[in-house]
From TrEMBL:
Comp. bias (Basic and acidic residues): 1-38
Superkingdom to which the source organism belongs: Eukaryota
Transmembrane intervals: none
Location of the Ubiquitin-like domain: 56-134
Protein name: Ubiquitin-like domain-containing protein
Pfam assignment, any one: Rad60-SLD_2
Region of interest (Disordered), ranges: 1-48
Entry-linked InterPro entries: Ubiquitin-like_dom, Ubiquitin-like_domsf, UBL3-like, UBL3-like_ubiquitin_dom
């Protein structure tokens, strides 16, 4: 009888192993599906899945949910990161397009990142993806300039003699 009980328990452990393998496979397939969806973004955003150990992957997250990744060095200043963001602005993000690095504000763990600090100074780790919120903020001068340009374009003049 002991051999029957041992046989039943070994079947049970084998069944458990098979079930856990199935769960792992399902999770891997789900992860691959999500990664594939992220990679096939129509907005021109770049999503990086494999981060080199000597680089920092910053996932820019906008208030509307748009996201894009950039690879930087940990020794890069935040000003350099902002320049990189400005140069590689996703084509699909047309609602707010910064015109200068001063328009870009980066927020990490509730703190605005200072232009003179490095990525490393802000405790953003290498070899990982770190989410940083990006906020586009125009100065009053730029807002007034845009209003003046709109005013000039829409105004007309009529001279009656």
């Amino acid at each position: 009888m002991d051999s029957d009980a041992a046989e039943k328990s070994s079947k049970t452990s084998n069944e458990v192993k098979e079930e856990s393998n199935e769960v792992v496979e399902e999770k891997e397939q789900e992860t691959a599906k999500v990664q594939k969806e992220e990679e096939s973004s129509d907005s021109g955003a770049v999503i990086i899945n494999d981060v080199p150990s000597d680089k920092v992957n910053i996932r820019l997250l906008r208030i509307n949910g748009n996201k894009s990744d950039i690879l930087v060095n940990s020794k890069d200043t935040i000003e350099t990161v902002k320049k990189h963001i400005l140069e590689s602005w996703p084509k699909g993000w047309t609602d707010e397009v910064p015109t200068a690095i001063e328009n870009i504000k980066l927020l990490h763990y509730g703190k605005y990142l200072d232009d003179n600090t490095t990525v490393e100074d802000n405790k953003i780790p290498e070899g990982q993806t770190t989410i940083v919120h990006i906020i586009i903020k125009f100065t009053k001068k730029e807002d007034e300039k845009e209003k003046d340009e709109t005013k000039e374009a829409s105004s007309c003049c009529c001279i009656i003699s």
